[in-house]
Amino acid sequence: KSEVECLVKLFDTLVARASSDYAGTGFDRTMFRDTLHSAFGMTDDVVLDRVFSIFDRDNDGSITVVEWVEGLGVLLRGTLEEKMKLCFTIYDLNGDGYISKEEMFQMLKNSLLIQPADEEPDEGVKDLVEIALKKMASTYLFVPFLLQDHDHDGKLSFTDFEKTVRDENLLLEAFGPCLPDIK
User: Fold this and answer.
1) What per-residue string of b and e applies to 101-124 under the rule 16 or more CB within 10 Å gives b?
2) Which key words tag this protein in UniProt (predicted)?
3) Residue in 40, 83, 157 with CA at minimum distance from that of residue 147
4) CB atoms within 10 A of CB 58
5) Which of 46, 116, 126, 141 has a CA-to-CA distance to 8 between 20 and 30 Å?
6) Alpha-carbon distance 171 to 168, whole Å?
7) How many CB atoms are closer than 10 A to CB 37?
8) Rounded CA gap, 123 and 159, in Å?
9) How wide is the angle at C-alpha 160 spanned by C-alphas 76 and 153, nearest 5°?
10) Count of Cβ atoms closer than 10 Å to residue 51 Cβ
11) Residue 21: is it exposed, middle or buried by C-beta count within 10 angstroms (0-12/13-18/19+)?
12) Domains annotated on the chain, with CATH
């Protein structure tokens, strides 16, 4: 109860600070992104936009207090199952229930920090996607390698994602950080 009250107070503070059309009822994408960035150090624009879309359940472009509390409830205190669903939904950019090669490419492209100077970055990411799908690597040096396409259909279903994450929880954020760290 005290955590929910704190989230409501934070929401009210953010809404009071918001200078948008939604001030008074909620806050917009910019305020949401700024808040997640300052509170949790989340910086990936694609991930932040996806998290906003998931929080904004009624698709009105504004986060209400209910959406805020329920969304942060999963983000901060969710069960493994809830967090798996959240992360999978973030990575499933087109909402078709699968993480395709193209979606893996977009997420990996955004999450890679260091790219070789002598190679076209996109080509390196394409190679990583192929390796991830073919599960050819047997090392933990780069976690997306370990995601397994259990049904061998060339894309990851939630079932594929869930099976792999249950074996290794670190793979929950295989295509980029979309959950706050434990701190």
Assistant:
1) eebbbbbbbebeeeeeeeeeeeee
2) Calcium, Metal-binding, Repeat
3) 157
4) 10
5) 46
6) 6
7) 14
8) 28
9) 145
10) 23
11) exposed
12) 3-77 (1.10.238.10), 80-171 (1.10.238.10)
Sign of the torsion formed by the C-alpha atoms of 86, 103, 28 and 43? positive
How is residue 106 written in tokens? 């977009």
Span 156-180, pLDDT tens digits: 889 888 888 888 777 777 777 778 8
Helix, strand or coil for residue 98? strand
List the beta bridge partners of residue 99.
156
Residues in the chain: 183
What digits encode the pLDDT tens for the residues 63-100?
999 999 999 999 989 999 999 999 999 989 999 999 88
**The two three-digit tokens of residue 36, written as one number:** 């997640």
User: In angstroms, rounded to a whole number, what is the distance separating the alpha carbons of residues 97 and 161?
Assistant: 11
pLDDT in tens, 118-159: 556 566 656 656 655 554 233 333 444 456 666 666 778 898
Distance of CA 174 to the CA centre of its chain: 10
Amino acid at site 54: I
Q: Which pair of structure tokens corresponds to residue 152?
A: 């061998």
Short-list 114, 74, 97, 90, CA closest to 159: 97
User: Which DSSP category does 144 fall into?
Assistant: G
Q: HSE of 146 in the Cβ direction (CA atoms, 13 Å)?
A: 19
